[in-house]
Structures are given as structure tokens and as C-alpha cells.
Predict the structure.
Amino acid sequence: MRLLERIFANYRRFFDAVAADALYMESPFFNFCLERDKNIIAVLKGNYRSLLEDAKGLFSDMEPKVWQMDRRTIKYWQAGHKRWDIENKNFNTLVNDWPLNHCFKHDPTAILNFVLTLFIAFILIQSFYQRNLKAALRGRFTTLISLADELHGSLTKGNLRAPWQEPRARPPP
């Protein structure tokens, strides 16, 4: 809540809701956010039966959306489950296909600048792929890296290699 207090003080109008895991399903946290005019999106798990019944009463006039996952059926009225897709898909891609797991410099400012630049590049390429690339071309690019290679090649007209394409120098024997 100390972190949220600083965020509320500095970026009051930046967001309208706070997403929280089941760990924060306590009235002090909810009251803290509500007193600052922020909505809360929280994971409601089975061990909070009374809250689950209250939520069912609040949402009784609304049809839930249904999500099937294997043999589980999940009914939801908020889009909080999508955050797991972000964590599982995007961060996994950034670590495995992009160099998010490698620290090129150890200065805190350099690390922050690298991570933010990488996030911006990733978001721009992903947005281009999902929102602007024609369906006929999507099949040509199996990964975002292949799209990044194509974009890099068109910018440099084939004269330069992207840093991730450079062969690693081996130390002399």
C-alpha cells in the first residue's frame, strides 16, 4: 500500500482501477483503494465463500462471460484473467526470443533504459503484427523475431546485420 500511496500521489489520474491477486482480498486494501476513488479488480478464490456470494448478488443482473479451460468452466464479469496471458505469453517471449534475460550493462540507469527500449520495440512490433499486418503476410512470419528481422532488413537495405544476428566471437585458443 506504500507503493500505491506514492503512485496515487504522483499519478492520480493515470488509471481508474487496481488489479490485485487473491493475497490482497482484505478489507483494509479495498477500503484504501476505494477511499482514493479507485476501482478494484481482484482474483476471488474458493476460500472466500462469503465474498463469492456477495459478488454473485452484485452481478446477478449481468450475464457472465464463460471461459472453458480443459475440464474447468470459469464464469467471469471482469477481464482480470487476461493478465495471466500477458505474463505467460509476453514475458516468456521476451525472455526466450528477445534478450530480456541478458544484462548488457550493470549500471541501473542503463538497465532501465534497455528494458524500457526493449518493451517499446516489442509492443510496437506486436501491435504492428496484430493490428496492421495483412492476414496473407502473417503466415510468412512465424515469430515476432522473423518480423523484426524483415523490418530491420528493409530499414538497412541488407547492408547491416541486427545485433541479435551477429555471430558471437570466440576467444582465441
In short: The two ends are 55 Å apart (CA to CA). Helices lie at 2-10, 27-35, 49-58, 82-96, 108-131, 135-138, 144-156.
